[in-house]
Amino acid sequence: xxxxxxxxxxxxxxxxxxxxxxxxxxxxxxxxxxxxxxxxxxxxxxxxxxxxxxxxxxxxxxxxxxxxxxxxxxxxxxxxxxxxxxxxxxxxxxxxxxxxxxxxxxxxxxxxxxxxxxxxxxxxxxxxxxxxxxxxxxxxxxxxxxxxxxxxxxxxxxxxxxxxxxxxxxxxxxxxxxxxxxxxxxxxxxxxxxxxxxxxxxxxxxxxxxx
Length: 211
Fold this sequence. Notes:
- By secondary structure, the chain is α/β, with parallel strands linked by helices.
- The protein contains 5 helices and 7 strands.
- The mean pLDDT is 86.
């Protein structure tokens, strides 16, 4: 699919979902334009400066009032709560698990004051990065998500499941409930049991081929 068609289709989807959101009187961009820009940034997958050059050089005719790169970054931060509208409804069973995402090589830990992640274990190996934790329904759709430094224990993410108590039973591994009694809607699954949890192993966000 051509890039211009991807952008147009994406904007139409966003505009339909945000049709009740009114722009600020002094804003140059409509919320639909801001969210579309943010989604393009996520799908593009490059650094922010490279993304801004790509957007400004090639697609400014779609976003004629595009602000400078520092202003756009602040606007994306202020409007990121609108992406919660793409969360899907929980089903009878949901699945919660953590993914370790390595951000830097362990030998570079602590070299920068701007380091985001922490040092922790993921899949039985040490990484310096973050834990990304999605809560999925039985169709593999995101119900909620969170993240924290890699040295954060999985018990930290139990609240993601407990706030849906009465709506869903969340399948997760035993690491989420080692300390104290587990919340009533969390089902702790030992290794090799409840294969329904494996939907999280195939969960991914596909990048459109045109970007």
